[in-house]
Amino acid sequence: MSIQELPVQAQPVQEPPVQAQPVQEPPVQAQPVREQPVQELHRAPGTDSADQGAPADARDAEGLSVWPRSARPEPHGDVSVGGVSLTEAADRFGTPLYLLDEQEVRERCRAYRTAFPDADILYAAKAFLSRAMAHWIQEEGLGLDVCSAGELALAVTTGFPPEKIVLHGNAKSPEDLSTALRLGVGRIVVDSTSEITRLAALTPPGTRQPVMVRVTPGIAAGGHTKIRTGTDGQKFGLSLTDGSAQHAVTRILDQPHLELVGLHCHIGSQVTTVKPYVAAVRRMTGLLARIRDQHGIALPQLNIGGGHAIAYRPGEEHLNISALAGRVRAELEDGCARAHLPLPRLTVEPGRAIVGPAGVAVYRVLAVKRTGTHTFVAVDGGMSDNPRPALHGVRYAPRLIGRPTTAPPRLATVVGRHCEAGDILADDVALPGDIHPGDLLAVPAAGAYHLSMASGYNLISRPPVIAVSNGTARTLVRRESQDDMNRRDVGL
Question: Half-sphere exposure of 375 toward its Cβ, with a 13 Å CA cutoff?
């Protein structure tokens, strides 16, 4: 189904300034809870098919521990994913390209549903969204978390039920809000007091839009300072400590067209441990109790966001979602019991943890340069198709594919083709010493925040996305052409 343009009309709304009353809250300490042994998510639980891949210990020995579960070594130095040869895919579709293992995505959706059987699981579309991805997510019983009218329109015109979609973002445009209201999204997460006024004015008479308040709980978590969103002093949410969140609750309850259904928080991304989530649940439960005491209502929903870490290189930490589910549920039940609150329905928003490990990027080597003690391996992509190393310091584990080699490894830096010294895809990685132009490099854990953050820098076209499953490869998103880019330039 093609995406139809969804015109909207929205009038700007003026709002008088408001003063939030400070509320003092004592710091909280997460209590230790004994964790039971659980199956790790990066093993993709939920599959019992004997042909899904090698056993875990064999995968580790083969250097495939952070690859999709279906990855396996093939003759002549090749690797297959989903039964598809990466070398053949590169020859057929060209490079750079992204491959996405459909079965891995589906298994990870099922793993979340198993870990959180009584919660709403929303896939965070910002990690990667396409029509096929929206279809897979819907088929696996998950909802969707979107941040713009564009993501919302793509999902709804694909057939995704709008009532299972949540819209949030720190600066929603009038178009975002009007589109969400017209299409009937399930919930809108309010991120500022000005948004309350605007949303109330846009909501059609005779209707009530369910909303949540995004709370900044004052918890620092995440793999990089630029993706830590749970503390004061950054752009997301309404502060718990200075009273802004409580003030927003009061404002929403005064709006007859808005229905406050719960609270939302998101503490950061690439979070490797359970403890920050437990602390966040404790603080959010405390706020639920204060809202009950002040306003006489028990909010029925609590959304604790996502940000669950994956491993990009062998040996790196990842978040164990089974442990997360058990600890969060225990803390929520205990906190609600202590405060005499009914148990709210929990929502989690994984994105990277569902699609990240399912993706592999494939590049072709264009040049090898040895200067002093440094070896630079330049490929035909770079920061235009993966800006994350430059933005967030992510380190990947590229692998030579397509030919056998007995050359001893040498440390090398894999760089892109763009006019930036910071255009580095992988720094100080071991690659065969005989690597040369024409070779292929495959980069695992490349399913999240690659195409969704890709740019047109140097007018380099964005790669295609190829789905692989059961030995079949098909195009989900075609390669951007030079004509695509030229047609946007209408200056003459």
Answer: 16
